[in-house]
Each structure stands twice: as C-alpha cells, then as structure tokens.
C-alpha cells in the first residue's frame, strides 16, 4: 500500500484525536445523569443498528457477482432497493406516527434480518425480495429512530440543546467509528477467516437481533398522532399540507434531497473516479479513511452545535459551498492534469488530488448529519414527523434510481459536476431558510414584547 494512503489516514486520525482531547468545559454542555443514561442507551441501539447496515454495504455487489450476475442485473437489484424505499418504505415509515415509533424500530430489525437471510440464496427472485425488504428497512432506519428519539427526549423533559449532543455523538459513533470497525470486521470474516461473502450478512443479523432485544427491553412507546380516525391517506394529506404551507419545511426537504442525492451518487462513483484505468487501489482502506473524515466532521459539528453564538442555519451555508467545491475536483483535474493512459499501476497524481477532495466531502457529510437532524427537530411538526421525513426521501430515491439507470450514459466528470451544482443550489436554499428563520424569530420577539406591554395600556 502506498505511503500516501497512510499519510492521509494518519493526518485525519491525528486531527480527530486532537479535537476530541482538546475539548474544554466551554465546549461541553452540563447535563443530568438521567439524560446521560437515556443518551447512552440510544447510542448503544443506534450503533448496533448501524453496524448491521455497514457490515452489508461493502459486500452486496461482490456477493451478487459471485452468484454469476452481470452489471445490468445487479443494477436492477439496486434500483429495486431504492424503488422499494420510495414506495413501500414511505408507507411503512409513515405508519410509525400512528402505530408507534418503537414498533417501527422493531419492524426495521425484523425486516433487515429477513433481507440478510435472502442473501444465502443464489436465486434472482429471492435476492430481489431481499432488496425490496432492504429498501423498506432503510426508510425505517432514517426516520423511525430519529422520530422516537426526538419525541422521547421532549417527553422526558430534557433541554432542547441536549438533543444536539445525542445527534453529533450518534453520527460520530454510528457513521464513523462503527463503520470503520464494521469494515475491518467484515474483512476479517471474508478474507482472513475465509467464511465467504455471506458471512457479513449473518454477522449483521446478529447485531440487529441484539439491538432489537435492547429496544424491546428498555424503550417505551411514543406516537405522532395516534388518533384512530386518521387513515394513511389522511396522514399523507396532512404531511403534504404541512410541507406546502410552511416554506421552512419545504426548503428543508429540498436541501436534504439535494445533499443526500449527491452523497449517494458519490458512493457509486468514487471507485471508478480514483481508478479510471483499473489502478490498484485499496478499497477497504480508502473506505475507512472516508469514515475517519466523517468522524472529523461530526466532531466539528458537536462544537458548532454546542455553541450558543453559532446558528446551524448559518454555518451549513458554508458547508454546502465547500462540499460543492470538493465534488468539482474530478471535473477540474480532468482539464488541468493530463490523464494517464497506462493501465493498472498505483493511484495517479490526479487520483491523489481527488482523494483529498473526497475526504473533504466526507467531512462535510459528518457535519451534515447532526446538523440536518437538529433542523428537522426544530421545523418538522411532531404529529407527522416520520411521515414528512419519508416524504423527503421520495425525490431522493427517484434521483438515485435515475442516476443508477443512466450511470453509463454520461462521463463520470459530468456526473460529479451535476452533483456540485446540486450542492451549490442547496447552499442557496439554506441561505433562504436562514433568512426566513430570522424573520420568524423577529416576529415572535415583537409579539412577545406586545404581549408584555399590553397590560400597561389597560386603564
């Protein structure tokens, strides 16, 4: 492995360690013992859930190839997963508000375990069923758990600012440390112990089962709007009205779709971008480096969210501009650096530049997750939280399906350029959201002053 990879990984690791060790009392928020117990319980469950997800990711495509399926058939399987998340996942995720968020989290565990079991079959139809189940599970993972956390946090009377602590730590652990450990553990199972490409899916099932046991034994149920006279169609209408009538919610949904759509496109394209001529690159080590960069971002986010002087709506404008610039690098290097025509070998100079840009983008991803969670907790109404969050995922899944279907139709540089434009648009929408938020706060303060002054005018 080339020295360059070690240098990037080591530099990122050193910065993350320095940031975490240098946290002063000013950066820490004083909380209660009850909150810390609640937070640690959620972090344990969330880490187990993410371990079940991360263990599968690196081996899905590889497993399908070992069963003899070609690129076209595998592409159809992936499209089925995202399509399922858009259609069935939206319905199942929306039921969480009515039937209970804890129940939805348990459903996630069961659905994903069943999806893992289907990986033992080389039959295309069985694998397709597995992808449909996986799509439903993904929608629940990114809506039900957060909805349960926000509702339970306020139900127990905890301070709103403390919610940011849970969000940033969940991303630091679940999307950073757990992802790295899951990648290494999967590599141990498949390459070192030679247990085969299905073994990570079996391990994922075990982690999911353990997490489900913790949920069943320690979580209480909460609901969005449990009224029995509201059917699913009424819930959908209510969510659509909330999005259409509140510009802040609509902007938040557009921002989320633009960023996550670019992020998932990046996931598909980073490998061919770094090895356009079949260069020999260490995929597992680069993946771990990306996750370390994401940890760096979440560590930065924890400081920003803990600061009373820094508003999330303001700093996210800068984050989106930086992420836009970072994904523009493949397009720029294509023009500024003479592309190599030599097949094989190690990573090129252009590849090194792009890797640094990709690490910057992953750091932005690490900042994005806890920050978007914070904004969702502020702007999305509690009674339809899961439903609205799953509505946000509809344009995202449509976008990813279109990209997957046309992945060979456009050059990689054009795809990255498109993502860069989307991220820049997200920064513009974020600026608009910040402006509306300022107006809303000013209006609320004026109303409060009028209410205080009113008794003075009474004769």
Which residues form runs of ≥5 with pLDDT under 50? Answer: none
Q: Count of DSSP E strands?
A: 0
Structural class: mainly alpha
pLDDT averaged residue by residue: 87
Membrane topology: Multi-pass membrane protein
Transmembrane segments: 6-22, 43-62, 74-96, 128-150, 170-189, 201-219, 285-306, 318-336, 348-369, 390-406, 412-429
Keywords: Cell membrane, Ion transport, Membrane, Transmembrane, Transmembrane helix, Transport
GO molecular function: molybdate ion transmembrane transporter activity
Fold and architecture overview:
The model has no long low-confidence stretch (mean pLDDT 87). With 459 residues, this protein is mainly alpha-helical. Helix 10 packs across helix 16, helix 13 packs antiparallel against helix 17 and helix 14 runs antiparallel to helix 17. It is built from 17 helices and no strands. Helix content is 78%, strand content 0%.
Brief account:
78% of the residues lie in helices and 0% in strands. The chain has 459 residues and is mostly helical.
Give the topology:
Blueprint lengths: L2 H19 L11 H22 L5 H7 L4 H29 L1 H18 L5 H18 L2 H12 L6 H31 L6 H20 L13 H14 L1 H28 L8 H24 L5 H15 L2 H8 L12 H31 L5 H21 L6 H42 L6
Helix pairs in contact: 1-12, 2-8, 2-9, 4-5, 4-6, 4-16, 5-6, 5-7, 5-9, 8-12, 8-15, 10-11, 10-16, 11-15, 11-16, 11-17, 12-15, 13-15, 13-17, 14-15, 14-17
Give keywords.
459 residues; globular; 78% helix; 0% strand; mainly alpha
